[in-house]
Amino acid sequence: MKPIHLILVIFTSLLLSSCSQPHNPKIKLAINPWPGYEFLYLANEKGLFKQAGLDIEIIEAPSLAEVKRFFRQGKANAMTSTMIEAVSLAAQHKKSISIVLVTDYSNGGDMILAKSDISEFSQIKSKRVGVELGSLGSFFLHQALAKHDLALNDIEMLNIEQLDAPDAFDKDIIDAYVTYPPYSNLLLNEFELQKVFDSSEIPKTILDVVTVSSDLVEQNPEWITRFHRAWQAALDYAKQHPIEANNIMAKREGISADEFAAAFQDLKVLSANDQREILSPKGLSQNMQQVCTVLNETNSINFECKALSQFLSIGKISD
C-alpha cells in the first residue's frame, strides 16, 4: 500500500471512530441553595459525575433569581430551579431548554412567614408581602391566596430577593415573606415570625427541576441516562454515609446538619427510577401549563401557553 493511501485509511478510520463516539458536552450547572438540589453538589464533591462519564461544573448562585440570570447571560447552560423559573425563562427569552431531572417536590418546604401579629393566613389581606417576582414566589403566593379565596390585588406585593428579606423585616418594609430553606431557617432564627402557609397545603404543585440547553442533550441521547445514574449514586451515597453527606450538604447551605436533615421532612426527593414516570407528557405537561397560566395572570410573562412546548421540552430517557 502506498504511503498516501495508508494515510487516507488511517484518517478515515479516525474520523469514523470520532463520529461513532457520543459527544460529551461541557455542562455549567447553576445551582442555588435548596436541600433537594444538594445531592448534585454532593455528586460533584464525591466525583460521581466523572464516574458517570459527565463533564459538569457547578456554578453556585445565591438565589433562584440569580440562577435564571446566569442562564440568561450565558454564564450557565444548565440550571436548578422550580418549574416556575423554567417556564419563565422559556417564555420570556425564547430559550430552548429541556427538563432532564425532577429532583423533588415541595411538601412544606416553601412557606410564607409573617410577623407575630398575623396569626393566620386570612389576616394577610391588605398587608405588605415580599416576594421574588417572576420566580417561584409569585406563583406560590398566587396559589396560596387562591386557596384562601383571596387575590393578588388583596395585598401589597413587593419585589424582594431572598438575601434582602432580613433587611426588609428589620426596616419594617414588609409584613410577610415567601421563602424556603435555608433562608427560612435564618429568618426564623433572627426574627419573631411564624409560618402561616406552606406547600403541604398544595401538594405536588411546586416541582424542582434541572433544565439544560436542548441542543446539548440532543447531541448525546445517552447524557440524560448517565446524569440520572450520577443522581442515584449521590442518593445512595447519602443513604450509606448519612453523617458525612449531611455535613457536606449542610455546610454549603449555611445551616447545621440537624437543620438540613429536618428540611427533608418537608419535601419528597425523587429517585432515578421515579424519573421515567414523571418525565413524561402526562407527568409534567399539566403542571407546566398551570404554571404558564398563573405567570400570565400575575403579569410575570406575556406568552401564549399553547406554544410553550416549542421552547420547553421534556428530556427523553434512552432505553
Structure, described:
This protein has 319 residues and is α/β, with parallel strands linked by helices. Helices cover 45% and strands 20% of the residues. The chain has helices spanning 3-20, 38-45, 48-51, 64-72, 83-93, 136-147, 165-170, 183-190, 214-218, 223-240, 242-253, 257-263, 272-278, 281-297; strands at 26-31, 55-60, 78-82, 97-106, 111-115, 128-131, 156-159, 176-179, 193-198, 207-213, 267-269, 312-314. The strands form 2 sheets. Strands 1, 2, 3, 4, 10, 11 and 12 form a 7-stranded mixed sheet that branches. It has a 5-stranded mixed sheet with strand order 7-6-8-5-9, sandwiched between helices. Helix 5 (83-93) crosses helix 14. The longest helix is centred in the N-terminal third of the chain and has 18 residues, at 3-20. The chain is globular. Residues 5-21 have low confidence and may be disordered.
